[in-house]
Amino acid sequence: MQVRLRRSAALLAGALIPLSLLTGQPAGAASADPMTDAFARAATTYEVPRDLLVSLAYSETHLDGHRGQPSASGGYGVMHLVSNPVTHTLERAATLTKQPVSALKADAAANITGGAAVLRAYADELGLDAKARKDAAKWYQAVAKYGGASSPEVARLYADTVYDLMAQGIRATTPEGEAVTAAPRVVEPERGSYAKAQELGKTNTLAAAVDYPGATWAAAHSSNYAVSNRPTSDAIDRIVIHVTQGSYAGTIDWFQTGPRPNPTSAHYVIRSSDGAITQMVREKDRAFHAGDYNRRSVGIEHEGFVDNASWFTDAMYRSSAALTRNIADRYGIPKDRAHILGHSEVPGADHTDPGPNWNWTTYMNYVTGGSGPTNPHTAESVCGTGFKVIDSAALGTAGTVYLTYNSTTGYNCVATIKKTQLGTASATSAYLEVEGQTRITDSGNFAYYAGPVRANAADKCVKWGGKAGASTYDSPSEHCG
């Protein structure tokens, strides 16, 4: 054991590792699945759980290295190795692997190796030994650090996203057409000090700060916007659609970082996977997002990259459209393409977002009230004959959790009914806890609903709740008797 630990320490201190081990097959050999093989080699070399490594990469880039071009925050490759004034994982990866920065930027295998090396270095700093490194739950704090967030709240958001993706499983296709998969793996992460950090996406004491009830508040740095008094000072008559060129957590952190030479922000940021919304600038204030249109517009950023359509999910379209519709109604903005426009359509803009993969037809249909797929299931149909809804709680835009009761049998039943990602298995849960009894939970990746969770609760108080997307509801002890 001591020999193995000394070898690992030397490896991370910068010992030269054979190029074939780090980045590819022996000379003359070609792999049919090069990225899959690269993840396997990097995970083995640095003793990082392979599925965790894949989930982290997917959360950052959907396994698209963008031909060596940087993200908005200066991140490169499928592992998003960052080089900016705040974060230097790219340079650290170069030191750890002895790979040139140019290879780490442009070569997928080298980039994956570099990401694994940095993640392992963080694990070593946390004191994870060989046994602990085999347990994905113990890597949480290393993952949180990898995101480079400037606050514990965003670091937790970043790490939670990675673990949520690992629970859902990964099935992705690279730009080269290779299928990369990771089987669903539910892990209860050990958050350590991050357990005390506020969960962005939850109801909190700052809820009154948001202009849109479905959003969570996370203030941008004061240097990244201008305090104003709109619409008194300037009429608001445009809504500008952006794409982040980066991840949800990374964008939130970037807007919270300052001062910078090029201050940047938007009023809202929307997550790809479930449509979760974070407001970062009050609508009355001018976010720095659209040049001359800053004074007259509200800016909405959408997680993703313009050249990869996989980021633009139905959940994102629906959530963003509901937000846009709400803003338009409040300020009297016509719901048409002359007033709801892309960043690239702003006069004088030098940006291309939201790009050709953004489906304006679908989006505007949702904005103007057009309908899409609906969930064929209801709480009463899931719970069964005799059950009637007695309470419910919205789970953001992702679904609703319902408490039902059967007056004939005295049973309660809980079901979480999805509203987005219908027909696609995604993390969803429902639970019921009768006073004095053990909580019953149905949790997993479901296409339409979680539940039914039934228990006899005659003359008893109950706690109930569930989760869909990024939103969770936990009731107090109630509905007694």
How does this structure look, described?
- This protein is an alpha+beta fold.
- The chain has 14 helices and 20 strands.
- Strand 1 (75-76) and strand 2 (81-82) form a beta hairpin.
Supply Rg.
24 Å
Separation of the first and last Cα atoms:
59 Å
Number of helices: 14
Structural class: alpha+beta
Overall pLDDT = 88
Count of strand segments:
20
Biggest β-sheet strands, sense, barrel: 6 strands, mixed
User: What order do the strands of the largest sheet run in, or round the barrel if closed?
Assistant: 5-9-8-11-7-12
Low-pLDDT segments? 1-28
Proportion in β-strands? 15-25%
Instruction: Name the overall outline.
Output: globular
Percent helix range: 25-40%
Outline:
The chain has 481 residues and is an alpha+beta fold. The protein has helices spanning 2-13, 19-23, 34-46, 50-61, 89-97, 101-106, 108-126, 130-133, 140-146, 152-168, 248-255, 314-331, 360-367, 379-383, and strands at residues 75-76, 81-82, 170-173, 179-182, 215-217, 225-226, 238-243, 268-270, 277-279, 286-287, 297-302, 340-342, 388-395, 399-406, 411-418, 426-434, 440-446, 449-456, 462-468, 471-474.
For the structure shown, list the relevant keywords.
481 residues; alpha+beta; 6-stranded mixed beta sheet; 4-stranded antiparallel beta sheet; 14 helices; globular
